[in-house]
């Protein structure tokens, strides 16, 4: 489980084609420190398993399913990526509960510059629209963000200077793809109601 608080802006240093998968070599000395084979690291919001570590980086295998369903398939040597280690039990939940399981991809539509922040508009697959609400949480490329405006096929977020400086959203341009993960709590609520939750359950949700 992750929190959506990016620890480090890493870089893809090599991509090896394995046929039905790819092996990424990722530079990220902060998240690699203490990492071992089998550990998890989120790369642009996708939970990947560490294969090997060394020289301030790690390698991870990405299967075709993940490449097809996320924006990782668009990464190449030199691409910058958001990196986060899993939250330690008892640690602070700085963002919100993030699984590292991408629900879909969106596209950055536009950026509006303000004096101290930016408003970014991102397209949203229509099937995910029911999970996104104003002032709710959403994960974009592994970053926990608060939704400003929610439409049927888009949403907007406000980015403070720290987010712009320390994550990939500082350099993403209109047309660039992003990974999206909606709030898992919304999906559990929907599932509960769809399968006839008790009156007590429904009252608690209301």
From TrEMBL:
* Entry keyword set: Repeat, Riboflavin biosynthesis, Transferase
Q: Which CDD domains match?
A: Riboflavin_synthase_like
The protein's Enzyme Commission number: 2.5.1.9
Query: Which reactions is this enzyme annotated as catalysing?
Result: 2 6,7-dimethyl-8-(1-D-ribityl)lumazine + H(+) = 5-amino-6-(D-ribitylamino)uracil + riboflavin
User: What species was this sequence derived from?
Assistant: Streptomyces botrytidirepellens
Task: Report the SUPFAM superfamilies cross-referenced here.
Answer: Riboflavin synthase domain-like
UniProt GO MF annotations: riboflavin synthase activity
Q: Which Pfam families match?
A: Lum_binding
Name of the protein: Riboflavin synthase
Functional note: Catalyzes the dismutation of two molecules of 6,7-dimethyl-8-ribityllumazine, resulting in the formation of riboflavin and 5-amino-6-(D-ribitylamino)uracil.
Q: Does the keyword Repeat apply?
A: yes
The UniProt record lists the Lumazine-binding domain at 1-96, 97-193
Query: Assembly and interactions?
Result: Homotrimer.
A biological process term (GO) from this entry? riboflavin biosynthetic process
Pathway(s) per entry: Cofactor biosynthesis; riboflavin biosynthesis; riboflavin from 2-hydroxy-3-oxobutyl phosphate and 5-amino-6-(D-ribitylamino)uracil: step 2/2
Cross-referenced InterPro entries: ATP_synth_asu-like_sf (IPR023366), Lumazine-bd (IPR001783), Lumazine-bd_dom (IPR026017), Riboflavin_synthase-like_b-brl (IPR017938)
Top EC class per UniProt? transferase
Give start and end residues of every Lumazine-binding repeat.
1-96, 97-193
Report which superkingdom the organism of origin falls in: Bacteria
């Amino acid at each position: 489980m992750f929190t959506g608080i990016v620890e480090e802006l890493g870089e893809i240093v090599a991509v090896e084609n394995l046929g039905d998968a790819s092996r990424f070599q990722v530079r990220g000395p902060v998240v690699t420190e203490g990492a071992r084979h089998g550990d998890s690291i989120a790369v642009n919001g996708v939970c990947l398993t560490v294969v090997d570590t060394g020289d301030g980086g790690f390698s991870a295998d990405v299967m075709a399913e993940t490449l097809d369903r996320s924006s990782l398939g668009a990464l190449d040597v030199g691409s910058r990526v958001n990196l986060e280690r899993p939250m330690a039990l008892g640690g602070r939940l700085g963002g919100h509960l993030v699984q590292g399981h991408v629900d879909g991809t969106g596209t950055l539509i536009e950026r509006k510059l303000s004096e101290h922040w930016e408003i970014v508009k991102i397209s949203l697959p229509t099937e995910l629209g029911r999970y996104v609400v104003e002032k709710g949480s959403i994960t974009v490329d592994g970053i926990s963000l608060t939704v400003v405006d929610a439409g049927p096929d888009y949403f907007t977020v406000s980015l403070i200077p720290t987010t712009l400086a320390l994550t990939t959203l500082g350099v993403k341009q209109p047309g660039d793809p992003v990974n999206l993960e909606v709030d898992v709590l919304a999906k559990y609520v929907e599932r509960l109601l769809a399968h006839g939750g008790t009156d007590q359950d429904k009252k608690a949700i209301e």
